[in-house]
Amino acid sequence: MEPVDLGAIADDFDREVAATPAIDRFCSSSAWILAASEALMPPRVAFSFRGEHGFLAAARGVHPAGFPYLEPIELAWGLAAPLIGRDPVALVEEVVPLLVARRDWQLAILAGLTADGPQRTALEHALPARWERRRGTPTIRHVASLEGGIDGFLSRRSRELRKSLRKSLRAAADAGITFVDVRAPASEAAALYERIQEVEARCWKAGEGVGISTGPMRAFYSLMLPRLCECQQQRTMFARAGDRDIGYILGAVFQGEYRGLQFSYDDTYGKLGLGGLLQYHQVLALCSEGIARYDLGTEMDYKRRWAEDTMETEMLVLVR
Q1: Cα(first)–Cα(last) distance of the chain, in Å?
Q2: pLDDT at 302 over 90
Q3: Residue 75 host element (H or E)
């Protein structure tokens, strides 16, 4: 395997991500991991390699206690998989000898692995017996099927959610609220992000410092959005009152699956149920273009009501 700059070959890397089984594909793709590396992760050096059968997408750092470690490029949430290749067995047979030969690490974190997935199975057979193996806490994503279009999607929601949604749709129509699907080219990514931020500033999240209006999270999305726009992956829906944006929902499409990223709305319109309405109109648009699945992301109570399936990955920690 040879060292590689993933940013310079992002398209090649993403094509291999798209063919890799049993991983969170969007959160292992270049748009997510490179933005996370720059905005959210501590200083590290590249430890990414390309072989005949795929990639090891990782970084090397030094712990404050003094020991060197390897980890996926994104470990803010532990969603990204570092082993990228359509044939996991052949890829692992390239990666493990590389790890054995390199003496510049003591601990390695391999996140984004499904417990019974082919990468994990191949690693168990190939790793040196003398290396200690530890299992990290699983990470759960909630996933909804869009099979059957909007009617099929709604049929799998609870009666209470459907009733609440119908009430919100009537209230929004009476108030003259409209919903606009916005697709922006890369040249307009900055303007789109500013439009999102204007809504974000009027949401409770901004006041409590938990949204994307400040700090590393604002930087993370500002770095990711141009790439999403360039690759035509970005999907944004705005709720509008007259000529004013009062809510947005932002996500991205990758390999026939939509990944929800962020949504917010102006608190003065909170009684209209804008959160659910934005979800509904985004799903409506996704169904019209034939998207098959909606990944709502990691664990939150409301996501259980909008999804019927889960995807679970975990970390494998190696100590040599």
Answers
A1: 21
A2: no
A3: none
